[in-house]
From TrEMBL:
It comes from the Bacteria. Keywords: Membrane, Transmembrane, Transmembrane helix. Signal peptide: none annotated. This is Neutral zinc metallopeptidase. The keyword Membrane applies. Its main location: membrane. It is found in: Membrane. It is a single-pass membrane protein. The chain crosses the membrane at residues 21-41. Pfam families: Zn_peptidase.
Length: 286
């Protein structure tokens, strides 16, 4: 994808190379990978992260450290900044077209662990959005795991898709969709609550596709293979693909993010339609 020369967004908080000290959560090995992919992406409800991870906390103290970023890490940050600014421009336009004003989120890049208003998390959480502080959190090591362990093609547009998905959760917060979904979950069985969670996640995939549609119209940023990279990532993080890979069988009633087919379908629907009104993923469960 074409991204160099894009304006700086001003909403990137790059904390890589810094350690806040205090307690760290042991999230390595197979258990960390299970949490990473079962949360993938961490979704909108960041409050769910802390209880899961605290069960694994061994109380290890992390020393306070700071190091210079490598040239590769600096370029990664510039790339993320470009995707943030692309999302800002697109969502400002979409909101304006619908008589609203878009409030920009901040994207935080971290290494290993981070504290948020939704609780503490490690890289094992995968990328996630915290509605309490309206920030997206990403440890970029997620994409290495996605590619090497779960067969995603990788590539820059796979990263752009994931970031656009998380910003889609911010859009849901601004529109009140997330709060309404949580209200709808009250009193529901776990299976019914999971269906609502799936609808929220699939709508974020739709919004990622919608962003792609608008940004292509505005900047002609796509290159050959970009859409395939996004679809490969969407396939890799489908609930069925993850469960099949991790446990050898699938349990549909435990799905929380949608199947590989659903995730790819809703991304493509957003990309092809370019119409935010076609993103009602909740219609199927009403």
């Amino acid at each position: 994808m074409k991204w160099k020369g894009t304006r700086k967004s001003g909403n990137l908080d790059d904390r890589r190379g810094m350690s806040s000290g205090g307690k760290t959560v042991v999230g390595g090995g197979i258990i960390g990978i299970v949490i990473l992919l079962l949360n993938a992406f961490g979704g909108e409800n960041g409050q769910m992260i802390t209880p899961i991870l605290e069960q694994m906390n061994q109380g290890q103290s992390a020393p306070t450290e700071q190091r210079d970023l490598t040239a590769e890490e600096i370029e990664e940050g510039e790339f993320i900044d470009a995707i943030i600014s692309n999302n800002e421009d697109v969502w400002a336009k979409i909101f304006q077209e619908n008589g609203m004003t878009y409030k920009e989120p901040t994207v935080v890049l971290f290494t290993d662990a981070v504290n948020t208003k939704c609780g503490s998390a490690t890289a094992a959480s995968g990328p996630f959005y915290c509605p309490a502080d309206q920030q997206v959190y990403m440890d970029l090591s997620f994409f290495t795991e996605l590619e090497t362990r779960f067969g995603a093609e990788g590539g820059d547009f796979a990263t752009a898709y994931v970031l656009a998905h998380e910003i889609g959760h911010h859009v849901q917060t601004l529109l009140g969709t997330s709060a309404k979904m949580r209200q709808m979950q009250q009193g529901k069985s776990q299976a019914e609550a999971n269906k609502l969670s799936i609808a929220l996640e699939l709508q974020a995939d739709f919004y990622a596709g919608l962003w792609t549609h608008y940004n292509q119209r505005m900047t002609s940023f796509l290159e050959d293979g970009d859409i395939e990279e996004a679809l490969s990532a969407a396939h890799a993080v489908g609930d069925d693909a993850i469960q099949s890979k991790m446990q050898g069988h699938i349990v549909p009633e435990s799905f929380t993010h949608g199947t590989s087919a659903q995730r790819k379908y809703w991304f493509m629907k957003g990309y092809k339609s370019g119409d935010i009104k076609q993103g009602d993923t909740f219609a199927e469960i009403r």
